[in-house]
């Protein structure tokens, strides 16, 4: 039997919750009945209609007459979660005869649907009318844990799929942002003369649901669908609560202080051991040694080899235990089958970090082998990078702890990748674009060290201004979100999440679960955490390169100045695509621009100076755009002409930019250059001097500016 309702509410709230859960568990149920779910809603301030449970037709009539018609009737059975499918729901019953007949019909339908079901009775509920039907729910994601959802509800919820997610528990600010985070947000504000729904009441429901699922870990899915959102409140017409009593083992996480302490020794080592070092060309251990030596690393290098006395001019040791001094990190270049023994010796030597290049672990199905090395690392407090990685670079130390090509172009961007191929693409792009990096890190299987460890390190690393990460999954999405939320307030965090498939780990028992597409969750949680999401590898690389170059804007007003009308239209489209706000041109500023452009040009925004203008026109309009405090960022569209050649344009832009900088005026400037091959050199010159510029594209410069704005908004700087 379901838990007995305590009408006088004499129990403490925690006792009520415990009793409801214990009853469901004892009866082998994975869901609460509707009356039980109503008790939870009452405890957590979630409005639900008046209702009662009838075990006979006459009792149903009495309950209905007591609350007033019309009413809704629903089957109450622990085994029947999807009541509509079972023919167990009737709505709009207007009188006693309809209720009497409805009771019998619902019970008959339920018996036919599941002859073995325990039919507790029929729930008679006050019928809600009017308002917008929305859904508020929660799911438990394998990576992110408890998530709260909000979207359009009712019978079409899984067809429309208009829903947004946040990590639970949510703040009131998060809850209100969810109301604006769906495509149908305008419906909630009132359309065609209709009244706006009560946003504060809806936010209350979202916050209280998030508190409920956060405080009751056994709840794995929850649906309030529909919630009738009206101008003067919000009430949940139906409640579904799905439970899971399986014990969960929390993931091992060191403290942030411990992470930073150990990561500093790993990333900035004074001494490196190479386990499996080799003097033979073509061996991974040989490449690692050469990269360390030839890369200019000034720390101590200890080759480890069971038989060699000397490798590439460095004394070799049979074991790390034989090395006389301290070692900060050990780079493994040995086959997988030898890693466990060598890692034990690393632990005994009290080396804080191990970089595991070898493959042959979980990625090949050798899960037990990976679990073994993790257990050894935990025992000795060794942090593991990898296995199955290319290693890492940290340029301020001239450190190339990798078997890949050496890299020595220093910069302020730190990048990581889960894939070796993506890592090599990062190296190639960085070198080709002269971007420069502070670090490039391979994470591979992420048996231990993952993205949140790197974030905490890069947060306090003075050599890093922006962090860009490629990932295929997040082992602990919640830990990452917490780290990203903290770090992104100080430094931009850009993420390229590969793979946009739906969750398939377990069949969902709720509408919310069925709507929880993997990519949708990542999209919403990354935004909640202040992360700038890259849609492609090119985006990741260009954002990493461009975001540190651009100064932080002081406001939202963007102005386009272009020498070609066609470019102006495309640049305007790109602004819309990237969430940028084209400034509505004030009359006085419009008149000021018109003084510099020909009569057949166009002021407004974009400002079209036309293609036949001399350098002075570009110079005057750009200067005006930088001088006026109402303009916060400039997008330049250049068209190649013999009157203003590409390098002439580039140099005059830099001249004006430096002139304004001397006066204390700095604004983001991006440029799109259309023309013959000479525009390539001009774009490069602009980029070298702080203007993010690209030839042959209107989309990319605006995308970089949009990324800077997204970060600045999330960090509260705009």
UniProtKB/TrEMBL annotation:
Keyword set, alphabetical order: ATP-binding, Ligase, Nucleotide-binding, Tricarboxylic acid cycle
GO MF term list: ligase activity
Domain ATP-grasp: 38-74
Coiled coil segments of this chain: none
Record Pfam families: ATP-grasp_5, CoA_binding_2, Ligase_CoA_2, Succ_CoA_lig
Keyword presence, RNA-binding: no
Domain of life: Bacteria
InterPro entries found in the cross-reference section: ATP-grasp, ATP_grasp_subdomain_1, CoA-bd, Ligase_CoA_dom, NAD(P)-bd_dom_sf, Succ_CoA_lig_flav_dom, Succinyl-CoA_synth-like
Signal peptide: none
Name of the protein described by the UniProt record: Acetate--CoA ligase family protein
Species the sequence originates in: Azospirillum himalayense
């Amino acid at each position: 039997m379901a838990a007995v309702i305590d009408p006088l509410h004499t129990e403490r709230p925690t006792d009520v919750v415990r009793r409801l859960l214990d009853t469901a568990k004892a009866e082998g149920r994975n869901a609460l009945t509707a009356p039980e779910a109503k008790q939870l809603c009452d405890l957590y301030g979630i409005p639900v209609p008046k209702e009662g449970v009838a075990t006979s037709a006459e009792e149903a009539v009495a309950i209905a007459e007591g609350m007033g018609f019309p009413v809704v009737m629903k089957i109450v059975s622990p085994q029947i979660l999807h009541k509509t499918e079972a023919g167990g729901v009737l709505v709009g019953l207007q009188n006693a005869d309809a209720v009497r007949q409805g009771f019998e019909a619902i019970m008959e339908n339920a018996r036919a649907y599941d002859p073995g079901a325990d039919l507790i009775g029929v729930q008679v509920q006050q019928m809600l009318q009017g308002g917008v039907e929305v859904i508020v729910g929660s799911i438990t994601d394998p990576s992110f844990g408890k998530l709260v959802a909000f979207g359009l509800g009712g019978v079409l919820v899984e067809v429309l799929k208009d829903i947004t997610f946040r990590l639970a528990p949510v703040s009131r600010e998060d809850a209100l942002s969810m109301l604006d985070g769906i495509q149908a947000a305008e419906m909630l504000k009132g359309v065609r003369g209709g009244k706006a729904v009560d946003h504060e009441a809806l936010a209350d429901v979202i916050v209280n649901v998030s508190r409920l699922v956060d405080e009751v870990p056994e709840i794995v899915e929850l649906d309030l669908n529909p919630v009738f959102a009206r101008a003067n409140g919000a009430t949940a017409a139906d409640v579904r609560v799905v439970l899971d009593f399986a014990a969960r083992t929390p993931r091992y996480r060191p403290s942030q202080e411990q992470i930073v302490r150990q990561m500093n020794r790993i990333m900035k080592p004074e001494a490196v051991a190479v386990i499996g070092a080799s003097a033979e060309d073509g061996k991974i251990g040989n490449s690692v040694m050469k990269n360390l030596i030839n890369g200019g690393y000034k720390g101590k290098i200890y080759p480890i080899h069971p038989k060699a006395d000397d490798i590439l001019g460095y004394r070799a040791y049979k074991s790390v235990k034989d090395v006389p001094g301290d070692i900060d990190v050990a780079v493994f270049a040995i086959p997988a089958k030898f890693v466990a023994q060598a890692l034990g010796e690393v632990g005994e030597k009290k080396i804080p970090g191990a970089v595991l290049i070898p493959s042959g672990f979980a990625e090949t199905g050798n899960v037990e082998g990976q679990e073994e090395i993790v257990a050894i690392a935990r025992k000795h407090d060794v942090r593991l990078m990898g296995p199955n990685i290319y290693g890492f670079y940290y340029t301020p130390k001239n450190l190339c702890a990798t078997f890949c090509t050496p890299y020595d172009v220093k910069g302020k961007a730190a990048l990581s990748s889960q894939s070796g191929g993506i890592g090599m693409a990062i190296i190639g792009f960085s070198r080709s674009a002269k971007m420069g990096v502070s670090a490039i890190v391979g994470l591979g299987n992420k048996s231990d060290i993952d993205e949140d460890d790197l974030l905490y390190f890069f947060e306090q690393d003075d050599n890093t201004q922006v962090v860009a990460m490629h990932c295929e999954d997040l082992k602990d999405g919640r830990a990452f979100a917490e780290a990203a939320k903290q770090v992104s307030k100080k430094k931009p965090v850009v993420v390229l999440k590969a793979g946009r498939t739906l969750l398939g780990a377990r069949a969902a028992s709720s509408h919310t679960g069925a709507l929880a597409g993997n990519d949708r969750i990542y999209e919403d949680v990354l935004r909640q955490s202040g992360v700038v999401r890259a849609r492609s590898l090119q985006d990741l690389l260009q954002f990493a390169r461009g975001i540190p170059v651009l100064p932080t804007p002081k406001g939202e007003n963007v102005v386009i100045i272009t020498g070609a009308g066609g470019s102006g239209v495309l640049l305007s489209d790109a602004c819309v695509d990237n969430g940028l706000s084209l400034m509505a041109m004030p009359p006085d500023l419009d008149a000021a621009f018109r003084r510099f452009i020909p009569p057949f040009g166009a002021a407004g925004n974009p400002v079209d100076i036309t293609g036949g203008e001399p350098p002075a026109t570009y110079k005057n309009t750009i200067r005006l755009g930088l001088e006026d405090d109402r303009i916060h960022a400039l997008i330049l569209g250049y068209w190649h002409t013999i009157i203003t050649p590409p390098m002439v344009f580039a140099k005059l832009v830099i001249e004006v930019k430096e002139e304004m900088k001397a006066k204390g005026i700095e604004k983001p400037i991006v440029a799109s250059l259309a023309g013959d091959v000479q525009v390539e050199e001009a774009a490069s010159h602009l980029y070298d001097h702080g203007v993010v510029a690209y030839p042959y594209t209107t989309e990319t410069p605006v995308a970089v500016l949009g990324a800077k704005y997204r970060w600045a908004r999330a960090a509260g700087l705009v």
